[in-house]
Amino acid sequence: MLNKDEHHTSLLQHKPLRQQKLRLAPFLLLLGGMVILSALLLLGWQVYTTNNASSSTNSNTGQRSAQDDSPTQNPWDEYPDVYWQTLRAQVAQRLHMSEQQIQDNLHATLLANVTADGKKNGISSANAAKWMNDLASAHGISQTQLHTIKITAIREAHKVLVNRHILTQQQADENMRMMNQDDLNFHMVEAFSGGDDSNGQKK
């Protein structure tokens, strides 16, 4: 059992510890509050950014759907007859055939599905490509040579539009760069279809 002096000494030793704990308490409370506040702010930011991303995605999806529903308008859809005339002449010359022979072949094969109103039933790019490949193959022309013929003919037809000041050289170059393989295939059908509706579009 402690005597009076020892008990007093013990109290004096423990008093600084209690004072130190009391001084740390506000700091610990403040630190805990900051941690909780930071967590709440982070959670709120995540919710905000997630909602914004979702809204942006929905908006873009709606815009794409609206664009997909609308018909695609290409610059060459409004080209004058002289373009298609030049294209026909260039292709026929390089295939060593007459324009009429190619037109007759087109109508007897690919366009044999023409309905009474003159509309063609679902001509795909693959069908158009097969028609041209078969035609070229029958005349000993490879697919690589056929591709070169298409590109050269289209370039020459654009040159006519530039020379007649219908297009600038820059416009012609840009329009040709826009063309993909599907466009090349449908170009050939359009040129030799004799003014019929081609792939759902008219010249």
Automatic annotation (TrEMBL):
<feature type="compositionally biased region" description="Polar residues">
    <location>
        <begin position="62"/>
        <end position="75"/>
    </location>
</feature>
<protein>
    <recommendedName>
        <fullName>SurA N-terminal domain-containing protein</fullName>
    </recommendedName>
</protein>
<keyword id="KW-1133">Transmembrane helix</keyword>
<keyword id="KW-0812">Transmembrane</keyword>
<feature type="region of interest" description="Disordered">
    <location>
        <begin position="53"/>
        <end position="75"/>
    </location>
</feature>
<feature type="transmembrane region" description="Helical">
    <location>
        <begin position="24"/>
        <end position="48"/>
    </location>
</feature>
<keyword id="KW-0472">Membrane</keyword>
